[in-house]
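Reply to dn_fold:

You asked what the input looked like. This is it:
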Amino acid sequence: MKRTISVLAIAAIMITTLTYVAIGQAPAPGQAPAGAPGAGRGVVGGVVGPGGPGGPGGARGPVVAGPPQPVPPEVAIPRPTAAEVAQMNDEITKMIDANKSATKPLLTKYRPLTVVQIPRDNSAIRPVPRNAAKHDSYVELAKKGDIDLLLVGDSITDLWRNSTETYATYFGKYKVGNFAISGDTTQGVLWGLQNGEGVGFQPKAIMMMIGTNNSGANTGPEIAEGVGSIVYELRKDFPNAKILLLAIFPRNAPTSPARKVNADASAIYSKLADNKNVFYMDIGQKFLSPDGTISTEIMADGLHPTAKGYVIWGDAVKDKLAELMK
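and this is what came back:
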């Protein structure tokens, strides 16, 4: 009886593991799976901002992903070796074969569901070239060395510039470098930092939110690894900077799969906060109505803040930024 329970317990664990390991065919690096938001448009699953994939200019030539980047242990997905996988699968097979209970037919029938697999390649930690024109402009700005607050993100951060008065209200007293690019992903931010955007200046503080454009192609744990890789890179490039790491904003309807993926990712990478160099804030609830929906007055398309939405954002972080900028 005890042996039967053990087999069932292991089966349950393996099924849970496969839920995120084998969610589907792993996308090729830099590609979104068929049917994912943004699929076939040059970005990894998600919302493409104004100007198409990555904004005007596009990336240079074919998109070729780089090697996987280091990931902090706090967000690392457990990855057993091939030998460990074989050892676990052999043991599971022996336990099922030796089972004498009435559940053995079920265990035998669904044996494939109990097979342990090595987690798929994580595209979110493989650097991919970002928008060429914007990247070049950011590199030139970085060379001037006159930045004390760096903004990192995708269109949600990029579009701060369009709300000129609000932008000035919250950032006017700082020397700001907004290195966000519409449609970008964790892998695009990684590539930018490693190709000229992470040298030439030393900011006092960094505000970062990235990952919603990964939500169509990557799982929450994979996105968390991507965010962790960026934090690792930022700590290496800017060792004295304080990082304000924001939870990914809620999007779409309360039942939206992307909203859940983003929430899962944020919960995992919140562990990166040490309240010394990295500080975590989740201000998502401030954008939501009591029933969890998002008013069009705050996010007209259910994703990008309106002028009112940017005021909510600015009010929520201004005091913390002022503290980190000292």
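The first strand starts at residue 149 and ends at 153.
Hope that clears it up.
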